[in-house]
Amino acid sequence: MEFMSAREAAEKWGISQRRVATLCSEQRIKNATMVGNMWIIPSSAEKPRDARSIRYFQNDEKKIKPFLKWAGGKGQLLSEIEKFYPFENERITKYAEPFVGGGAVLFDILSKYKIEEVYINDINAELINTYINVRDNVDKLICILKVFQEEYIPLDTGRRKLYYLDKRSRFNELKVKEDEVLNIEKAALMIFLNKTCFNGLYRVNKKGLFNVPMGSYKNPMICDDKNLLAVSKSLENVIIKCGDYRESGDFIDKNTFVYFDPPYRPITDTASFTAYTENSFNDEDQIKLSNFVNDMNRKGAKILLSNSDPKNTDKEDNFFENIYSSFNIKRVKASRMINRNSNSRGKIKELLISNF
Questions:
Q1: What predicted TM-score, i.e. pTM, was given to this entire model?
Q2: Listed residue (187, 192, 185) closest to 217, CA to CA
Q3: How far is residue 229 from each of residues 19, 66, 107, 224, 232, measured CA to CA in Å?
Q4: What SS3 state is found at 119?
Q5: DSSP 82
Q6: Distance from C-alpha of 313 to C-alpha of 153, rounded to nearest angstrom
Q7: Helical axes 6-13 vs 17-25, angle rounded to 10°
Q8: 186-198 burial string, b = 16+ CB within 10 Å, else e?
Q9: Do residues 353 and 297 touch, judged by C-beta distance below 8 A?
Q10: Which CA distances in Å does 150 have to 54, 78, 147, 159, 219?
């Protein structure tokens, strides 16, 4: 077998020598070998497919971003999470996110890669209704949001509060009715409340009614029509479901990258005050999830999961080490954005758990 140097490969493939060395160290060039302090590469080797160059948008359009604020959103962790994207592997052609939430990871992936099949799910019916209407009825949705924006922004604080409470009451009325004819209005109300409520929280009481008070934003962007149009386009062929995360098992196979972002395990007694739905997600649920994750691992899927790190408050708490004993666990720094005690806000560690 004839070999070439990393410099010769760089010239042949039109990339930097440093990039060639990186590809070799990642074992993406078959039979590349380190000799001394240099790489030698089979002369017949072909340049590895670089998925970083496959863009969802091939022009200068604004990168799509989440259209909702979401507590626990992963925007601040994208630089860590993207290190796990496996799309340079030609086998990985599908993406699944069974707890989609605000979709920070989803939209980052849709901005960067062409994925053959994408599946998202969440148990929050109002959230999924909003995703569906952004995808299918974005023009009507924008028209309603523009009216909300034009009516709300000029008001003083007192009248804003009355307007907000009226829209919150209407949203809860539609939640109870579950009338499909009114789903576009309900989606618009979801976005309006999200942009104007305290901290962008979605919290419901035991009856399932949204109960977050108004926030204090001076000039909230209620209708970001450019981003909504871009998001709508990106969701065109995305499968959107509302239900139990385990239903994603029919979609997930060996060609799938799955990102699990479940409700986090509380690390303090007061950390679980936010309820996204009427249902809780306790330790027993975390264990059931780990069993499902193991099932998907046996299918051959590439898996990444995030959760809180119990060791922030208890160094002896090995809960996740125990239930994901065969997985790789990485600790990353994140900012706690919402906490009852302002002194407890700041940098903490979260877990990224993977099977590769």
A1: 0.80
A2: 192
A3: 36, 12, 13, 9, 5
A4: strand
A5: G
A6: 42
A7: 110
A8: bbbbbbbbbbbbe
A9: no
A10: 39, 34, 5, 14, 11
Cα Rg of the chain (Å, integer): 23
Give the closest residue to 225 by CA, choosing from 134, 142, 136, 149: 142
| pLDDT reported for residue 278 | 53
Q: And the tokens for 133?
A: 């209407």
- What are the CA-CA distances from residue 299 to residues 166, 255, 296, 329 (Å)? 49, 9, 5, 20
List CB contacts of 30: < 8 A, sequence separation 6 or more. 42, 45
* Whole-number Å distance between alpha carbons of 230 and 331: 33
Residues shown for the chain: 356
In angstroms, what CA-CA distances link 119 with 98, 241, 273?
8, 8, 29
- Which tops the pLDDT comparison, 16 or 282? 282
Question: pLDDT at position 52, please?
Answer: 43
Q: In angstroms, rounded to a whole number, what is the distance separating the alpha carbons of residues 16 and 170?
A: 58
Tokens of 58: 């091939």
